[in-house]
Amino acid sequence: MIWFFLILCLYYVAGRTKFSLFSPLVLFYVFFILSIVLSVAYHYWMPYDWKFNIAGTDRIVDSQLWLSIDVFVKMLIYFSLGVLFYKYAFNVRKNRGFKVDLKIELPPIKTNSLVNIALALTVLEIILVAMLYGKEIFIRATYAVDYNKLGVMLLEYSLLFLIFTGSLLYKEKRTLSRVIALFVTLLCIGFGSRMATIYLLVYFFVIFILFLNKKKKFYYMVFGIPFIILFFGYNLSLRFNDTHGLGPYLYLPFSGSSEIIKNTFFNLYYTLVFGVFATFRTLAKNPVNYDYLFTSLNPAPGFLTDWYLIFKKLRINHYAPYSGIGEIFTYPTIAFFFYFTVGMIFSHAERIIQKLFMNKKIGAGFILFLLTSAFIPFSFEYNLRSSVRFLYYAMIFMMMLNIFSNIKIKR
Protein backbone atom coordinates (compact mmCIF):
# COMPACT_ATOMS: atom_id res chain seq x y z
CA MET A 1 0.00 0.00 0.00
CA ILE A 2 2.78 2.43 0.91
CA TRP A 3 4.48 1.84 -2.47
CA PHE A 4 1.20 2.38 -4.31
CA PHE A 5 0.72 5.69 -2.50
CA LEU A 6 4.29 6.76 -3.44
CA ILE A 7 3.65 5.94 -7.12
CA LEU A 8 0.40 7.92 -6.98
CA CYS A 9 2.21 10.92 -5.46
CA LEU A 10 4.96 10.74 -8.08
CA TYR A 11 2.32 10.64 -10.83
CA TYR A 12 0.69 13.85 -9.63
CA VAL A 13 4.03 15.57 -8.98
CA ALA A 14 5.15 14.68 -12.53
CA GLY A 15 2.00 16.34 -13.82
CA ARG A 16 3.19 19.66 -12.42
CA THR A 17 6.96 19.30 -12.72
CA LYS A 18 9.05 19.37 -15.87
CA PHE A 19 12.39 17.60 -15.89
CA SER A 20 15.26 20.07 -15.60
CA LEU A 21 18.91 19.66 -14.71
CA PHE A 22 18.59 22.67 -12.41
CA SER A 23 15.47 21.57 -10.56
CA PRO A 24 16.13 20.73 -6.89
CA LEU A 25 12.85 18.78 -6.93
CA VAL A 26 14.01 16.52 -9.74
CA LEU A 27 17.38 16.04 -8.05
CA PHE A 28 15.68 15.10 -4.77
CA TYR A 29 13.59 12.38 -6.40
CA VAL A 30 16.40 11.04 -8.61
CA PHE A 31 18.87 10.89 -5.72
CA PHE A 32 16.66 9.08 -3.23
CA ILE A 33 14.98 6.70 -5.67
CA LEU A 34 18.41 5.77 -7.02
CA SER A 35 19.71 5.29 -3.47
CA ILE A 36 16.83 2.90 -2.70
CA VAL A 37 17.45 0.84 -5.84
CA LEU A 38 21.23 0.67 -5.37
CA SER A 39 20.97 -0.12 -1.66
CA VAL A 40 18.69 -3.09 -2.31
CA ALA A 41 21.05 -4.32 -5.06
CA TYR A 42 24.06 -3.82 -2.79
CA HIS A 43 22.46 -5.68 0.11
CA TYR A 44 21.34 -8.72 -1.87
CA TRP A 45 23.93 -9.07 -4.61
CA MET A 46 27.22 -7.70 -3.26
CA PRO A 47 29.26 -10.61 -1.84
CA TYR A 48 29.49 -10.41 1.95
CA ASP A 49 33.28 -10.11 2.04
CA TRP A 50 33.26 -7.35 -0.58
CA LYS A 51 31.01 -4.99 1.33
CA PHE A 52 32.61 -1.78 2.57
CA ASN A 53 30.78 -1.89 5.90
CA ILE A 54 31.71 1.62 7.03
CA ALA A 55 31.39 1.92 10.82
CA GLY A 56 29.78 -1.55 10.84
CA THR A 57 26.58 -0.28 9.21
CA ASP A 58 26.18 -2.85 6.40
CA ARG A 59 25.71 -5.97 8.54
CA ILE A 60 21.93 -5.95 8.78
CA VAL A 61 19.31 -8.59 7.97
CA ASP A 62 16.64 -8.28 5.29
CA SER A 63 13.89 -7.10 7.64
CA GLN A 64 16.13 -4.33 8.97
CA LEU A 65 16.95 -3.16 5.45
CA TRP A 66 13.28 -2.97 4.53
CA LEU A 67 12.52 -1.06 7.71
CA SER A 68 15.00 1.57 6.53
CA ILE A 69 13.62 1.48 2.97
CA ASP A 70 10.11 2.08 4.35
CA VAL A 71 11.43 5.22 6.05
CA PHE A 72 12.76 6.50 2.73
CA VAL A 73 9.45 5.73 0.99
CA LYS A 74 7.53 7.61 3.71
CA MET A 75 9.98 10.49 3.42
CA LEU A 76 9.33 10.70 -0.34
CA ILE A 77 5.57 10.60 0.25
CA TYR A 78 5.66 13.36 2.88
CA PHE A 79 7.92 15.44 0.64
CA SER A 80 5.58 14.89 -2.33
CA LEU A 81 2.55 15.99 -0.32
CA GLY A 82 4.34 19.23 0.50
CA VAL A 83 5.21 19.70 -3.19
CA LEU A 84 1.63 19.07 -4.28
CA PHE A 85 0.19 21.35 -1.60
CA TYR A 86 2.45 24.19 -2.75
CA LYS A 87 1.82 23.67 -6.46
CA TYR A 88 -1.95 23.41 -6.11
CA ALA A 89 -2.27 26.14 -3.47
CA PHE A 90 -0.33 28.61 -5.62
CA ASN A 91 -1.65 27.21 -8.90
CA VAL A 92 1.84 26.37 -10.14
CA ARG A 93 1.40 24.63 -13.45
CA LYS A 94 3.99 22.45 -15.11
CA ASN A 95 7.11 24.50 -15.64
CA ARG A 96 7.01 26.28 -18.95
CA GLY A 97 9.37 24.90 -21.49
CA PHE A 98 12.37 27.15 -21.77
CA LYS A 99 16.00 26.80 -22.63
CA VAL A 100 18.50 27.87 -20.04
CA ASP A 101 21.09 29.76 -22.01
CA LEU A 102 24.27 29.15 -20.11
CA LYS A 103 26.27 31.14 -22.60
CA ILE A 104 27.80 33.91 -20.54
CA GLU A 105 29.13 36.98 -22.26
CA LEU A 106 32.51 37.84 -20.79
CA PRO A 107 33.83 41.37 -20.81
CA PRO A 108 36.34 41.86 -23.62
CA ILE A 109 39.72 40.50 -22.56
CA LYS A 110 42.74 40.49 -24.84
CA THR A 111 44.11 37.02 -25.44
CA ASN A 112 47.67 38.30 -25.02
CA SER A 113 46.77 39.63 -21.57
CA LEU A 114 45.42 36.23 -20.55
CA VAL A 115 48.56 34.54 -21.90
CA ASN A 116 50.77 36.90 -19.90
CA ILE A 117 48.74 36.29 -16.74
CA ALA A 118 48.98 32.54 -17.26
CA LEU A 119 52.74 32.68 -17.78
CA ALA A 120 53.24 34.87 -14.70
CA LEU A 121 51.14 32.49 -12.60
CA THR A 122 53.05 29.49 -13.94
CA VAL A 123 56.34 31.05 -12.86
CA LEU A 124 54.80 31.79 -9.45
CA GLU A 125 53.65 28.17 -9.09
CA ILE A 126 57.10 26.83 -9.92
CA ILE A 127 58.69 29.14 -7.33
CA LEU A 128 56.15 28.22 -4.65
CA VAL A 129 56.49 24.48 -5.32
CA ALA A 130 60.29 24.76 -5.19
CA MET A 131 60.10 26.64 -1.87
CA LEU A 132 57.43 24.47 -0.24
CA TYR A 133 58.15 20.99 -1.59
CA GLY A 134 61.50 21.02 -3.35
CA LYS A 135 62.46 17.55 -4.57
CA GLU A 136 59.75 16.01 -2.37
CA ILE A 137 57.17 16.93 -5.00
CA PHE A 138 58.59 14.02 -7.01
CA ILE A 139 59.10 11.42 -4.26
CA ARG A 140 58.78 11.40 -0.48
CA ALA A 141 58.27 8.91 2.32
CA THR A 142 54.94 10.14 3.71
CA TYR A 143 51.70 11.46 2.29
CA ALA A 144 51.31 14.43 4.61
CA VAL A 145 54.22 16.76 5.26
CA ASP A 146 54.18 19.79 7.54
CA TYR A 147 54.58 22.62 5.07
CA ASN A 148 54.04 26.33 5.57
CA LYS A 149 50.24 26.69 5.80
CA LEU A 150 50.15 30.21 4.37
CA GLY A 151 52.35 29.18 1.46
CA VAL A 152 50.18 26.15 0.70
CA MET A 153 47.06 28.33 0.78
CA LEU A 154 48.66 30.81 -1.64
CA LEU A 155 49.66 27.91 -3.90
CA GLU A 156 46.15 26.41 -3.93
CA TYR A 157 44.39 29.68 -4.74
CA SER A 158 46.90 30.69 -7.39
CA LEU A 159 46.53 27.25 -9.03
CA LEU A 160 42.77 27.74 -9.10
CA PHE A 161 43.23 31.12 -10.75
CA LEU A 162 45.70 29.62 -13.23
CA ILE A 163 43.43 26.80 -14.36
CA PHE A 164 40.52 29.24 -14.62
CA THR A 165 42.68 31.46 -16.83
CA GLY A 166 43.64 28.41 -18.87
CA SER A 167 39.99 27.55 -19.42
CA LEU A 168 39.34 31.08 -20.74
CA LEU A 169 42.11 30.53 -23.30
CA TYR A 170 40.47 27.36 -24.64
CA LYS A 171 38.92 28.97 -27.70
CA GLU A 172 41.88 31.04 -28.92
CA LYS A 173 44.85 29.08 -27.54
CA ARG A 174 43.61 25.52 -27.23
CA THR A 175 47.02 23.85 -26.97
CA LEU A 176 48.24 26.30 -24.32
CA SER A 177 44.95 25.84 -22.45
CA ARG A 178 45.41 22.07 -22.33
CA VAL A 179 49.06 22.40 -21.28
CA ILE A 180 47.98 24.64 -18.38
CA ALA A 181 45.32 22.13 -17.33
CA LEU A 182 47.86 19.30 -17.48
CA PHE A 183 50.43 21.35 -15.52
CA VAL A 184 47.97 22.18 -12.72
CA THR A 185 46.66 18.61 -12.57
CA LEU A 186 50.17 17.14 -12.36
CA LEU A 187 51.11 19.49 -9.55
CA CYS A 188 47.98 18.60 -7.58
CA ILE A 189 48.64 14.91 -8.18
CA GLY A 190 52.15 15.47 -6.84
CA PHE A 191 50.63 16.94 -3.67
CA GLY A 192 48.26 13.98 -3.45
CA SER A 193 45.48 16.55 -3.18
CA ARG A 194 41.81 16.12 -4.07
CA MET A 195 42.16 19.56 -5.64
CA ALA A 196 43.30 17.72 -8.77
CA THR A 197 39.70 16.60 -9.28
CA ILE A 198 38.14 19.88 -8.17
CA TYR A 199 40.33 21.99 -10.45
CA LEU A 200 39.65 19.69 -13.41
CA LEU A 201 35.94 20.14 -12.73
CA VAL A 202 36.40 23.92 -12.78
CA TYR A 203 38.29 23.68 -16.09
CA PHE A 204 35.67 21.46 -17.74
CA PHE A 205 32.75 23.45 -16.36
CA VAL A 206 34.01 26.81 -17.65
CA ILE A 207 34.64 25.34 -21.12
CA PHE A 208 31.23 23.63 -21.00
CA ILE A 209 29.45 26.91 -20.31
CA LEU A 210 31.43 29.28 -22.52
CA PHE A 211 32.57 27.43 -25.61
CA LEU A 212 30.60 24.29 -26.43
CA ASN A 213 27.55 23.91 -28.64
CA LYS A 214 24.64 21.64 -27.72
CA LYS A 215 26.02 18.55 -29.45
CA LYS A 216 29.47 18.89 -27.91
CA LYS A 217 27.92 19.46 -24.47
CA PHE A 218 26.13 16.13 -24.80
CA TYR A 219 29.34 14.24 -25.60
CA TYR A 220 31.16 16.20 -22.90
CA MET A 221 28.71 14.89 -20.31
CA VAL A 222 28.57 11.32 -21.65
CA PHE A 223 32.35 10.89 -21.54
CA GLY A 224 33.32 13.56 -19.00
CA ILE A 225 31.24 12.43 -16.02
CA PRO A 226 32.51 8.79 -16.01
CA PHE A 227 36.07 10.10 -16.44
CA ILE A 228 35.73 12.45 -13.45
CA ILE A 229 34.27 9.65 -11.30
CA LEU A 230 37.13 7.32 -12.22
CA PHE A 231 39.72 10.07 -11.80
CA PHE A 232 38.36 10.91 -8.36
CA GLY A 233 38.74 7.24 -7.39
CA TYR A 234 42.36 7.46 -8.51
CA ASN A 235 42.75 10.72 -6.61
CA LEU A 236 41.54 9.13 -3.38
CA SER A 237 43.88 6.17 -3.83
CA LEU A 238 46.98 8.36 -3.66
CA ARG A 239 47.05 8.74 0.10
CA PHE A 240 47.03 4.94 0.54
CA ASN A 241 50.05 4.34 -1.70
CA ASP A 242 53.22 2.88 -0.17
CA THR A 243 55.42 5.68 -1.48
CA HIS A 244 54.41 9.24 -2.25
CA GLY A 245 55.12 12.01 -4.72
CA LEU A 246 54.47 12.63 -8.39
CA GLY A 247 56.55 9.67 -9.60
CA PRO A 248 54.87 6.95 -7.50
CA TYR A 249 51.43 8.49 -8.04
CA LEU A 250 51.78 8.48 -11.83
CA TYR A 251 52.92 4.85 -11.70
CA LEU A 252 49.94 3.82 -9.54
CA PRO A 253 47.49 3.12 -12.43
CA PHE A 254 49.95 0.52 -13.76
CA SER A 255 50.67 -1.11 -10.38
CA GLY A 256 47.50 -0.64 -8.32
CA SER A 257 44.60 -0.29 -10.71
CA SER A 258 42.45 -2.49 -8.47
CA GLU A 259 42.68 0.12 -5.71
CA ILE A 260 41.54 2.83 -8.12
CA ILE A 261 38.51 0.76 -9.14
CA LYS A 262 37.81 -0.03 -5.48
CA ASN A 263 37.88 3.65 -4.53
CA THR A 264 35.67 4.53 -7.49
CA PHE A 265 33.05 2.08 -6.27
CA PHE A 266 33.55 3.33 -2.73
CA ASN A 267 32.66 6.86 -3.88
CA LEU A 268 29.43 5.57 -5.41
CA TYR A 269 28.68 3.52 -2.30
CA TYR A 270 29.30 6.36 0.13
CA THR A 271 27.32 8.84 -1.97
CA LEU A 272 24.25 6.73 -2.76
CA VAL A 273 24.13 3.65 -0.50
CA PHE A 274 25.73 4.25 2.89
CA GLY A 275 22.95 6.54 4.13
CA VAL A 276 20.27 3.84 3.86
CA PHE A 277 22.19 1.56 6.24
CA ALA A 278 23.21 4.47 8.47
CA THR A 279 19.53 5.41 8.76
CA PHE A 280 18.63 2.02 10.21
CA ARG A 281 21.50 2.26 12.72
CA THR A 282 20.31 5.76 13.65
CA LEU A 283 16.73 4.60 14.20
CA ALA A 284 18.01 1.75 16.38
CA LYS A 285 20.28 3.91 18.55
CA ASN A 286 18.87 7.45 18.57
CA PRO A 287 16.99 8.18 21.82
CA VAL A 288 13.78 10.17 21.84
CA ASN A 289 15.03 13.44 23.30
CA TYR A 290 13.22 16.63 22.32
CA ASP A 291 16.07 18.79 23.63
CA TYR A 292 18.38 17.12 21.10
CA LEU A 293 15.80 17.67 18.36
CA PHE A 294 15.35 21.34 19.25
CA THR A 295 19.10 21.89 19.12
CA SER A 296 19.37 20.11 15.76
CA LEU A 297 16.66 22.33 14.24
CA ASN A 298 17.81 25.52 15.95
CA PRO A 299 19.01 28.02 13.30
CA ALA A 300 21.34 29.74 15.78
CA PRO A 301 25.11 29.14 15.43
CA GLY A 302 26.45 26.16 17.33
CA PHE A 303 28.20 28.22 20.00
CA LEU A 304 24.84 29.78 20.95
CA THR A 305 23.30 26.35 21.55
CA ASP A 306 24.35 23.20 23.42
CA TRP A 307 25.36 21.52 20.14
CA TYR A 308 29.00 21.11 21.18
CA LEU A 309 27.86 19.36 24.35
CA ILE A 310 25.62 16.83 22.62
CA PHE A 311 27.02 16.22 19.12
CA LYS A 312 29.19 13.30 20.27
CA LYS A 313 26.03 11.57 21.50
CA LEU A 314 24.44 11.83 18.05
CA ARG A 315 26.73 9.31 16.38
CA ILE A 316 26.48 5.68 15.34
CA ASN A 317 30.03 5.29 16.64
CA HIS A 318 33.29 7.24 16.71
CA TYR A 319 33.58 7.16 12.91
CA ALA A 320 30.04 7.88 11.69
CA PRO A 321 27.38 10.42 12.70
CA TYR A 322 23.68 9.69 12.74
CA SER A 323 21.92 10.32 9.45
CA GLY A 324 19.60 13.32 9.37
CA ILE A 325 16.77 11.18 7.96
CA GLY A 326 17.11 8.68 10.78
CA GLU A 327 17.20 11.44 13.39
CA ILE A 328 13.99 13.14 12.23
CA PHE A 329 12.15 9.81 11.79
CA THR A 330 12.85 9.02 15.43
CA TYR A 331 9.86 11.35 15.83
CA PRO A 332 7.37 10.00 13.22
CA THR A 333 4.75 12.75 13.51
CA ILE A 334 7.33 15.52 13.41
CA ALA A 335 8.94 13.80 10.40
CA PHE A 336 5.69 14.23 8.46
CA PHE A 337 5.52 17.99 9.09
CA PHE A 338 9.27 18.36 8.53
CA TYR A 339 9.35 16.78 5.06
CA PHE A 340 6.01 18.34 4.13
CA THR A 341 7.70 21.71 4.80
CA VAL A 342 10.86 20.66 2.95
CA GLY A 343 8.69 19.81 -0.08
CA MET A 344 7.20 23.32 -0.04
CA ILE A 345 10.63 24.93 0.32
CA PHE A 346 12.03 22.93 -2.61
CA SER A 347 8.99 23.80 -4.73
CA HIS A 348 9.35 27.50 -4.00
CA ALA A 349 13.10 27.35 -4.69
CA GLU A 350 12.46 25.61 -8.01
CA ARG A 351 10.01 28.33 -8.98
CA ILE A 352 12.47 31.11 -8.17
CA ILE A 353 15.34 29.33 -9.93
CA GLN A 354 13.24 29.10 -13.09
CA LYS A 355 12.40 32.80 -12.89
CA LEU A 356 16.05 33.72 -12.38
CA PHE A 357 17.21 31.63 -15.34
CA MET A 358 14.50 33.06 -17.58
CA ASN A 359 15.67 36.55 -16.65
CA LYS A 360 19.33 35.69 -17.37
CA LYS A 361 20.32 35.79 -13.68
CA ILE A 362 22.26 32.56 -14.06
CA GLY A 363 24.66 33.12 -11.14
CA ALA A 364 21.92 33.75 -8.56
CA GLY A 365 19.86 30.83 -9.87
CA PHE A 366 22.83 28.48 -9.70
CA ILE A 367 23.71 29.55 -6.14
CA LEU A 368 20.13 28.94 -5.00
CA PHE A 369 20.15 25.55 -6.74
CA LEU A 370 23.35 24.56 -4.90
CA LEU A 371 22.15 25.80 -1.51
CA THR A 372 18.85 23.96 -1.78
CA SER A 373 20.31 20.77 -3.27
CA ALA A 374 23.06 20.53 -0.63
CA PHE A 375 20.37 19.47 1.85
CA ILE A 376 19.96 16.18 -0.07
CA PRO A 377 23.36 14.49 0.45
CA PHE A 378 23.88 16.06 3.87
CA SER A 379 20.60 14.65 5.20
CA PHE A 380 21.64 11.27 3.79
CA GLU A 381 25.11 11.09 5.34
CA TYR A 382 25.38 13.61 8.20
CA ASN A 383 23.55 14.86 11.28
CA LEU A 384 20.20 16.59 10.98
CA ARG A 385 21.71 19.87 12.15
CA SER A 386 24.33 19.77 9.39
CA SER A 387 21.70 19.28 6.68
CA VAL A 388 18.99 21.64 7.89
CA ARG A 389 21.47 24.52 7.84
CA PHE A 390 21.30 24.54 4.05
CA LEU A 391 17.53 25.02 4.14
CA TYR A 392 18.04 28.08 6.31
CA TYR A 393 20.74 29.39 3.95
CA ALA A 394 18.46 28.85 0.95
CA MET A 395 15.53 30.61 2.64
CA ILE A 396 17.72 33.57 3.64
CA PHE A 397 19.06 33.77 0.08
CA MET A 398 15.51 33.75 -1.33
CA MET A 399 14.52 36.52 1.07
CA MET A 400 17.51 38.59 -0.03
CA LEU A 401 16.60 38.04 -3.68
CA ASN A 402 13.07 39.21 -2.98
CA ILE A 403 14.33 42.34 -1.25
CA PHE A 404 17.17 43.35 -3.56
CA SER A 405 16.15 41.86 -6.92
CA ASN A 406 13.53 43.00 -9.37
CA ILE A 407 12.54 39.35 -9.89
CA LYS A 408 9.29 38.95 -8.01
CA ILE A 409 7.41 35.68 -7.58
CA LYS A 410 3.73 36.46 -7.98
CA ARG A 411 0.78 34.24 -7.24
UniProtKB/TrEMBL annotation:
Keywords, sorted A to Z: Membrane, Transmembrane, Transmembrane helix
TM segment ranges: 25-45, 65-86, 114-133, 154-170, 182-211, 218-240, 260-280, 330-349, 361-378, 390-407
Origin: domain of life: Bacteria
Keyword Membrane carried by entry: yes
Protein's UniProt name: Oligosaccharide repeat unit polymerase
